[in-house]
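Q: What structure does this chain adopt?
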Amino acid sequence: MERNPVKKLLILVLPVAVFGCATVEQPQSNVAGTICWKEMPTGSNLPVTKCTTEEERQRQKEAVEAMGNEIHRSGSNKTRGSGGV
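A:
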Protein backbone atom coordinates (compact mmCIF):
# COMPACT_ATOMS: atom_id res chain seq x y z
CA MET A 1 0.00 0.00 0.00
CA GLU A 2 1.55 3.27 -1.16
CA ARG A 3 1.16 6.44 0.95
CA ASN A 4 0.41 9.74 -0.67
CA PRO A 5 3.27 12.26 -0.08
CA VAL A 6 0.76 15.11 0.02
CA LYS A 7 -0.98 13.50 3.02
CA LYS A 8 2.36 13.29 4.84
CA LEU A 9 3.01 16.95 4.14
CA LEU A 10 -0.45 17.97 5.36
CA ILE A 11 -0.05 15.90 8.53
CA LEU A 12 3.19 17.75 9.28
CA VAL A 13 2.18 21.26 8.20
CA LEU A 14 -1.44 21.48 9.39
CA PRO A 15 -0.76 21.38 13.16
CA VAL A 16 1.98 23.99 12.82
CA ALA A 17 -0.35 26.25 10.84
CA VAL A 18 -3.22 25.85 13.31
CA PHE A 19 -1.22 26.30 16.49
CA GLY A 20 1.08 28.92 14.99
CA CYS A 21 -1.90 31.23 14.42
CA ALA A 22 -3.10 30.81 18.00
CA THR A 23 -0.05 32.31 19.67
CA VAL A 24 -0.52 35.53 21.66
CA GLU A 25 2.30 37.99 22.19
CA GLN A 26 2.74 38.95 25.82
CA PRO A 27 2.78 42.70 26.45
CA GLN A 28 5.94 44.33 27.72
CA SER A 29 4.99 45.54 31.19
CA ASN A 30 8.45 46.12 32.60
CA VAL A 31 8.11 49.91 32.23
CA ALA A 32 7.51 51.68 35.55
CA GLY A 33 3.94 52.94 35.85
CA THR A 34 2.53 50.58 33.24
CA ILE A 35 -0.87 49.08 34.03
CA CYS A 36 -2.26 46.16 32.01
CA TRP A 37 -5.77 44.70 31.99
CA LYS A 38 -7.85 42.34 29.89
CA GLU A 39 -10.89 43.50 27.91
CA MET A 40 -13.51 41.46 26.12
CA PRO A 41 -14.20 43.15 22.77
CA THR A 42 -17.83 43.34 21.72
CA GLY A 43 -18.80 40.24 19.77
CA SER A 44 -15.77 38.22 20.85
CA ASN A 45 -15.06 35.67 23.54
CA LEU A 46 -11.32 36.20 23.30
CA PRO A 47 -9.89 38.68 25.82
CA VAL A 48 -7.47 41.35 24.61
CA THR A 49 -4.71 42.66 26.86
CA LYS A 50 -4.42 46.44 26.95
CA CYS A 51 -1.57 48.34 28.62
CA THR A 52 -1.02 52.04 29.23
CA THR A 53 1.78 54.02 30.81
CA GLU A 54 1.28 56.81 33.34
CA GLU A 55 2.08 59.37 30.62
CA GLU A 56 -0.55 57.92 28.24
CA ARG A 57 -3.19 57.93 30.98
CA GLN A 58 -2.40 61.57 31.81
CA ARG A 59 -2.69 62.58 28.13
CA GLN A 60 -6.04 60.73 27.85
CA LYS A 61 -7.32 62.46 30.98
CA GLU A 62 -6.32 65.88 29.62
CA ALA A 63 -7.97 65.14 26.25
CA VAL A 64 -11.23 64.11 27.96
CA GLU A 65 -11.22 67.24 30.13
CA ALA A 66 -10.54 69.46 27.10
CA MET A 67 -13.39 67.82 25.17
CA GLY A 68 -15.75 68.24 28.13
CA ASN A 69 -14.80 71.91 28.41
CA GLU A 70 -15.40 72.39 24.67
CA ILE A 71 -18.82 70.75 24.87
CA HIS A 72 -19.72 72.85 27.91
CA ARG A 73 -18.63 76.08 26.18
CA SER A 74 -20.42 75.34 22.90
CA GLY A 75 -23.62 74.26 24.70
CA SER A 76 -23.86 77.39 26.86
CA ASN A 77 -23.58 79.75 23.86
CA LYS A 78 -26.67 78.40 22.11
CA THR A 79 -30.01 80.05 22.68
CA ARG A 80 -33.16 78.05 23.03
CA GLY A 81 -35.89 78.57 20.54
CA SER A 82 -39.60 78.19 21.13
CA GLY A 83 -39.65 74.69 19.66
CA GLY A 84 -41.80 73.38 22.49
CA VAL A 85 -38.97 71.67 24.29
